[in-house]
């Protein structure tokens, strides 16, 4: 309802705090997400140095020169975000990686899709010694192996705070971006390294890309088009222990597995002051609306429902303009921006809905229509508003869809293939 004023920060090294605070509204929501991901890489039978097939499930006996493994043998104070890699000459590829602790316990993980490194499925432990054994096969069929024993660093004192706005076992709308948040923001020089540790897998497979908000406090991941209904999103923001150039380290890994539900979309045209509602691409209802008046216009652009509250209080007494200060009980509120724009019931404006804009930036609908919408929508459902006096500001809400795909990929810290990135594994 008010002008742009972000409330709440993502804080905490022990658990995710996702705060969607109502602007001037005195209520907020906190949730936690937990997920354990990753599988151990498979090994396959291969001939030993004499050409005799090995037992099934055992790695091939090395016959080529030793590999140089990273982290280097004898390395100390290595980040717990370390990945295992090796220099493989002659265009060869790593075929298996084994990582164990000093007591012989095996660490699970998997190779990246491009074979560049092997990623542990969980952060390594601080102050712990590990031994990595890497086996690779050259283009000539020669098998090589290398071993490295290294020790991780002590737990750092200076860390960033981070958040993931996605939660286990929840169902979201087709426009739900994967949203990460950082405090303080990630410096530009670190974003490529951080982005390579932000893993998204989709089932069925769909390409996607990351986009950083200018100050580095948020990054969004989306596909070229809305997600297919029924998609499963598996996300790991693997930042625990990753070193940054400002002397800080990532605090924790954030993980979640969630579903995408039925396609539900809202489109609002200021010219007609109508909202057209679609389910699975078919028009199901048209609703009269009242948008923001000229002094407090609604934002034009594509937004997503960020939060839903059946009842709440809008409190804008801290607004610099006395004319915009009020305390009002609100029913069926659905947040669209950090700046305070919502879809909500507005019985006081029903007599002008469909004809005149009188709100402070929100999408006003009748009590009956607000109740119906509230029962239909999910967090992540898209709403597009057009024809108002203000354009949606980047970062004012989950603005991943306010850009075309070609514009969106320009915000990635690493080059993006034309079709988008595939699965990292």
From TrEMBL:
Active site residues per record: 344, 362
InterPro entries associated with the record: Big_10 (IPR041280), LD-transpeptidase (IPR050979), LD_TPept_cat_dom (IPR005490), Transpep_catalytic_dom (IPR038063)
Classification via Gene3D superfamilies: 2.60.40.3710, 2.60.40.3780, L,D-transpeptidase catalytic domain-like
Alphabetical GO biological process terms: cell wall organization; peptidoglycan-protein cross-linking; regulation of cell shape
PROSITE patterns cross-referenced by the UniProt entry: LD_TPASE (PS52029), PROKAR_LIPOPROTEIN (PS51257)
A cellular component term, taken from the record's GO annotations: extracellular region
Keyword Signal: yes
Record-annotated L,D-TPase catalytic domain positions: 264-386
Pathway(s) where this gene product acts: Cell wall biogenesis; peptidoglycan biosynthesis
Signal peptide: 1-23
SUPFAM superfamilies listed in its UniProt record: L,D-transpeptidase catalytic domain-like
Stretches with biased composition (Polar residues): 95-104
Superkingdom assignment: Bacteria
A family per Pfam: YkuD
UniProt biased composition (Low complexity): 38-61
Keywords: Acyltransferase, Cell shape, Cell wall biogenesis/degradation, Lipoprotein, Peptidoglycan synthesis, Signal, Transferase
GO MF term (any one): peptidoglycan L,D-transpeptidase activity
Region ranges (Disordered): 38-109
Annotated protein name in UniProt: Lipoprotein-anchoring transpeptidase ErfK/SrfK
Gene source species: Micromonospora echinofusca
